[in-house]
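Hey,

Quick one before I head out. I ran the complex with adenosine-5'-triphosphate overnight. Inputs first:
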Amino acid sequence: HTGQEIIRARGLSVKKRRTEILHGIDLVLEAGSLTAIVGANGAGKTTLIQALAGVVPPPRGQVTVDGIDPGVASPRDLAARVGFVFQNPEHQFIAHTVFDELAHGLRLRQVPDAEITVRVDDMLTRFGLAHKAEVHPFLLSGGEKRRLSVGTALITRPRVLALDEPTFGQDRARAAELLDLLQELRTEGTTIVIVTHDLQLVAEHASHVVVLAGGRVRASGPTSTLFQDERLLADAGLCL
Ligand code: ATP
């Protein structure tokens, strides 16, 4: 699918409280890409990924996901297009068991019970959580929580999966495991966008990079091109 656009932002500005945090972002994400949003602390990375996923209030400017405008789409329509994984997975847990956590998005969409069971069981197996189906999500280990949050975002089969700092607080081995999973999803046709501080991870895994500085896009393009420009990275407060 590479080459086709899946997310487009035009003149995207976002305020939180009274402060404008993103100033006129223009951006295109290619279908099938794994795009990493990088930048110094406070550059606006979290705000940007949330705006792209429709998690923050309607911004100024325009974002289209797969041709639809999140400001206009119903939350359900949007969730079907972009799955969002918070930096702290616990922020998104609402159910009392792992099974119900996964089933929730499907129940909201009135998927028949028999199909819910099949899809949840598939997801439990895929994420190595089958033996934890009846456990409370808060009792999982850190890695299990992360996998559950990804599974919850994926179960409605969104076209785009957006993850804020997916490897935060995880050791190298676990981070690598998660990245393998993201690459696998990508080969199945899901577009991935992440925020991360880990430039080594970006160099190894991301096809595209967006460099943010002060709420503006400083540069964006293929990782192989951008990461040759040490000056650009240094200017954005980053070092490889
Ligand atoms: P970090 O790498 O430190 O997580 P970031 O690049 O993800 O930062 P954001 O979290 O998007 O940046 O925040 C961008 C700026 O907006 C920061 O200066 C932050 O202090 C400010 N900000 C974030 N949320 C709010 C809010 N609710 N109200 C006011 N200012 C906010």
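DSSP finds nine helices and nine strands in the chain.

Talk tomorrow,
K.
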